[in-house]
Amino acid sequence: ERRVSQMPRPSRWGARTQLWAFARGSRQRRIFPYCTGKSFLLAHRYTAVQRKETLDEETACLRWLKESIRESRRLREAVRSRALRWTPYQYLVGQVDFLHLKDFCVRPPTLIPRPETELMVERILESRPPTRRLVLDLCSGSGVIGIALATEWADSRVDLVDASERAMSLARENAGRYGVDGRLSFLVGAIGDQEFAENSYDMIVSNPPYIPTATVENLSRTVKNHEDILALDGGVRGMDIVRQVLDVASVALKPGGLLWMEVYAEAEQHRLVEEYIARYHATRLHPQEVVSDLRDMPRFVVVRKAVPDEAQRDR
């Protein structure tokens, strides 16, 4: 009767476990980064003799094992750093997956893209056909929103605006990584310092600082110790930059164009957005939709620029 080899219990990743992995073939060798260093050479030497591997094969495999040891040590140091300093794991590995963007680069203090923002981009892509358009990404940070749209809408151009030079440098790097830097422009400075032509953009997207100042002070150490607080703090009610985005949308959007903006769902900030529009931009902007996130909280607002007939009717 044929014996089926079973992997040894991994209470200790020592020589016995590694011998089993070598005997079972290369597909099992993914366990090696978790093994103890002292038994690598013993396991390799034993199996090389048993399987009569050539010297070249043995040398190549030994080199692979040494690299695995170094990688496991680096990983252990990264985990230790995270435990001691509350470092977000995305900063440790330097990348994150965002929809179709694999290995998107991230580094402190630029904000790490969140699943909520990923959902907003997904909804934007679902709601608009990929036709030629000009998009404005306000408070662009790492550039993840604008880059994700540019990679899917091949005939579009995206203007990125952010107050942080370091964030914009990262956005340029990511744009080049995905081959869309030729269709993106990068504007460094506060929103209020920019001049936007009237009726120029088909769409505006934004994930602005929207957290009230008092709430920012209570954020977790993984956020406060490593991410840019200025990219999170939206003022007393979280509306300082949100209002600026709405002001820009009232001017820069083409008639019928859409603003997609992430807001502070925990405080139902979408209601403050509606109040501000009603007070200052009632003839130019119309709240179109409030979109919930995966927790069924009102996370995104969709605002449409009025067409001329609507603007006249609302006067």
The sequence of SSEs as H and E is HHHHEEHEHEHEEHHHEHEEH
In angstroms, what is the radius of gyration?
Answer: 26 Å
Strand order of the largest sheet: 5-4-3-6-7-9-8
Note the overall shape: globular
Number of strands: 9
Enzyme class: transferase
EC number: 2.1.1.297
Catalytic activity: L-glutaminyl-[peptide chain release factor] + S-adenosyl-L-methionine = N(5)-methyl-L-glutaminyl-[peptide chain release factor] + S-adenosyl-L-homocysteine + H(+)
Protein name: peptide chain release factor N(5)-glutamine methyltransferase
Features:
315 residues, alpha/beta, Rossmann fold, 2 domains, seven-stranded mixed sheet, two-stranded antiparallel ribbon
Task: Describe the secondary-structure layout.
Blueprint: H1 15-24, H2 39-50, H3 55-85, H4 89-93, E1 95-98, E2 101-105, H5 115-127, E3 134-138, H6 144-152, E4 157-162, H7 165-177, E5 184-188, E6 201-206, H8 213-216, H9 221-224, H10 240-252, E7 253-262, H11 269-280, E8 285-292, E9 298-305, H12 308-314
Parallel strand pairs: 3-4, 3-6, 4-5, 6-7
Antiparallel strand pairs: 1-2, 7-9, 8-9
Helix pairs in contact: 1-2, 2-3, 5-6
